[in-house]
Amino acid sequence: DVDLVLGVLGAVSPDGLEWTVLPEPLAETHCDTQLVGTYNAHLGEYVIYTRDYVDLPMDEEAAEYDPGRMVRYTRRAVGALRSRDFRHFPLPEVVLQADPSMRPSEVLYTNAYTTMPGAPEQHLMFPAVWDLCHHDETRIRVASSYNGLLWQFLPGEPVLETGTFGAWDGGCVFAHPNLVELPNGDWVLPYTGYDV
Length: 196
What we know:
The protein is an all-beta fold. The chain is built from 1 helix and 18 strands.
């Protein structure tokens, strides 16, 4: 048996160029994918968007605790760690999860939190929706929030889908922060694609 402790580490910098990793974790929680941190001036808090899980109900008398439950009986979602103290965060809260329009096999894999260029009070996410069964593919949707805590998907088609099988992005795609405005007024969002 191996005792495994998962958590979020933080780093600080006086100039944004040289960083010092803090000796203690900010929080002990399972968050094995894209983390995006920000300072939310409206809330007066640091917010770290991470992977979280929506647990399926379980009768405690039905079975003993299963440490692998998180992987087998939960649905991936987006969580938020929030704190006024950058060195201590409580456990995350689910802030965005699969909505009724999504297949039961679809989960939220990454969050790609960002704000609108020139409007830091307008919060956006470009989460990768991973369909575990239907062609094992991803697509990027858009969610918005007025305060960074209450999120809803915007209606409409995905902004990006997995490319054609065999193409460089034919396996999966993932959006990355930040949304950027180009000199001509176009907005661009970085993303990566994989052929598997």
